[in-house]
Amino acid sequence: MTLEEMVGQQLMVGISGTKLTPETISLFSDTHAGGLIVFRPNFESAKQFKQLISSLEQALGRELLVAVDHEGGRVIHLSEGVTIFPDNLVLGKTQNEEYARLQGEVEARELSRLWIDVNLSPTLDVLTENFSPNIGIRSYGKDSELVARLGSARIKSMQAGGVSACAKHFPGQGQSSTDAHLGLPVLETDWDELKRVHLKPFLAAMNAGVASVMSSHPVYPNLDPSKVPATFSKRIIRDFLRKEIGFRGVIFSDDLEMGALKNLCSIETSAVKAVAAGHDMVLVCHDANNAREVYESLYSAYRKKELHLKNLEESVYRIKKIKKIRSVSETVFQEEKGKFVAELIARDGICSLDVFEHPCTVIFPRLSALADKIFIEKEMLDEEAYVRQLFNARLDRVVVVGIEPKDSEIDEACALASTSDSVIFFCFDAHLYPQTRKLLELIQVKSSNCAVVLLRDPYDREFVREGTVCVDTYGFRSVQIQQTLRQTWKNQIPSKASAIKS
Fold it and tell me: What residues act catalytically?
């Protein structure tokens, strides 16, 4: 390889759209980028997606390392040929390693058919008592031993099936109350807490042979007195992860375009600092101009010997090792047992509501409004039809409200609640949306018989009054909602009785 080609191997970039364009070809040709990270806007269908990858590689005359964040639950970008698994926190509630193993097995088969080389998953961050807006339901939970067992089981089976896994976000950010996408977290974790709690899942992943690790952006002042983000920290990445605990796989940065780094320095400087700290590949997920600037800055740093050629050669060697032989199968399909495994996880990890026989009013969030930003399952895009199907038509009324409900929507929902025998409110992040919190509080006042189903993170429990029935789905995927309401298959509906565990 030329120096230009070797430098390009350290760059993983995202692209826009579902079709190959001259601009995309030019980007990869000019930067020699070795990696492609794909997101929901790149995926229209399995056939289109594979054609996009094939056309790009043919135009370049070389293979790319193709990666995706396919965590399950909240973080899904592929809408065909894959199983929609519940969020990790649901699996954590089951404490079942066999379910984790089966999930990894299914994911490997499905992702291989889509020509995915690396699944940037699982999330091995350990939750604490702190509010965690970014990790939350993406974590297996607060028990580091449990996180370690479930994560390593999934990693082993995924990699046995031919897809490289990625343990993230090293050295752990489940305790962060700041979302690194938006700002720079500062975490007071010390070495004792790190080794006692947050490090355990990553060590288990390494023992399981995990192919890659992704670092995190927060500052850990008690781990590195220089008080730089972990992304820039030689102490955390090169000295500790690479040398002290001996990780031999690929080390990815998180996306350099995140808000955590934006106000610290230019993206060109971020890239050089990240590679100097010990990262093999840096991610630039959205902006082509940023990707070009990152490449030029890295190339210049190697030319000026600000970065060491020996380290570059070692990175290129590690990256080559995780490239897989592509599946020859032209057919893309969801594994038959995938749906069954997803339902088992949801059944054993989620409480259901007790039942009685009278129709009720259901208040449900307008999830379709999020479809431009995140993957929403097709059947949930028509919320009223979806709810009526869930309840087998045993409903009085369905009210669909905005993710951040307008006052008029709140007034309508409360008026119906006050005249209904019973109400079920599907609550979407009252912790983050003041209008949703307002609606949650008023519903509990207006209805003499209401149940609250918490979608996404369970932090909204603090707004639920004592005596109000409340269950957690730990996410908004259909399989999770269905299992919360599994008693309704008897043509009955939730009552004021307490929640039960199946």
Answer: 181, 254
